[in-house]
Amino acid sequence: MNDALNAGLATLGIPLDEAQKQKLLDYVGLLGKWNKTYSLTAIREPERMVPHHLLDSLAPLSAFPAESHARILDVGSGFGTPGIPLAIARPDWQLTLLDSNHKKTTFLRQALLELQLPNVTVVSDRVEAYHPEAPFNVITSRAFAELSEFIKLTRHLLAKGGNWAALKGVYPYEEIALLPKDVVATEVKQLQVPGLEAERCLVLIKEV
């Protein structure tokens, strides 16, 4: 696992220190342990979790429109992707992981304790019912919903001038065409994830 992680990070051009790499591997170990009881992910082998969960979450890192100390919301975070890998890679960001599934948020809270991630908050709630004290600079998701629904459900959570950053598989031509008229996809960045044959892209969206 360590070799695959190191090679993948080198390919992506993401310089992490040894402590950060160990936290990523510890996250995979924790996910594998909980998965035996709670079936959090269909991927059972830790070796496959490295490309499918770690590198897939980190591949868009350089394209993320987030400055230092940005507030980022991961909607439908599930077992913590992309939120936890992003939080490990960027400890200067403040991430909130939102999911309505209590089984998954229980895992997330345990992961935060064991991985010691003070820059992460877990919220167990439906996205439309969530009203934080302050809006977010970036709202991201990984296979949460179609783009128009993603925008509709999270619009009240985005700060003025902020960005939506949706992780998708194949280029979502039809979903982009159906976006509300008052938002625009500013960029669709094709991602190459080491160890994955499947297509991946990051769709950046802003209000007009």
Strand content: 15-25%
Helix content: 25-40%
Question: Could you tell me the radius of gyration in angstroms?
Answer: 16 Å
Please report the number of helical segments.
7
Function: Specifically methylates the N7 position of guanine in position 527 of 16S rRNA.
GO molecular function: rRNA (guanine-N7-)-methyltransferase activity
EC number: 2.1.1.170
Subcellular location: Cytoplasm
Summarize this structure as a short list of keywords or feature phrases.
methyltransferase, Ribosomal RNA small subunit methyltransferase G, EC 2.1.1.170, Rossmann fold, 208 residues, rRNA_ssu_MeTfrase_G, single chain, alpha/beta, 7 helices, cytoplasm, 7-stranded mixed beta sheet
Can you walk through the features of this model?
By secondary structure, the chain is α/β, with parallel strands linked by helices. The chain has a single domain, classed as Vaccinia Virus protein VP39 (Rossmann fold, 3-Layer(aba) Sandwich), CATH 3.40.50. Helices cover 38% and strands 25% of the residues. It has helices spanning 2-12, 18-38, 46-58, 83-89, 102-115, 147-154, 173-177, and strands at residues 71-75, 94-99, 120-124, 136-142, 158-168, 183-191, 200-207. The protein has a seven-stranded mixed β-sheet, sandwiched between helices. Helix 2 packs across helix 3 (46-58), helix 2 (18-38) packs antiparallel against helix 4 (83-89) and helix 3 crosses helix 4. The longest helix is centred in the first third of the chain and has 21 residues, at 18-38. The radius of gyration is 16 Å and the shape is globular. The chain starts with a helix and ends with a strand. The relative contact order is 0.15. The mean pLDDT is 96.
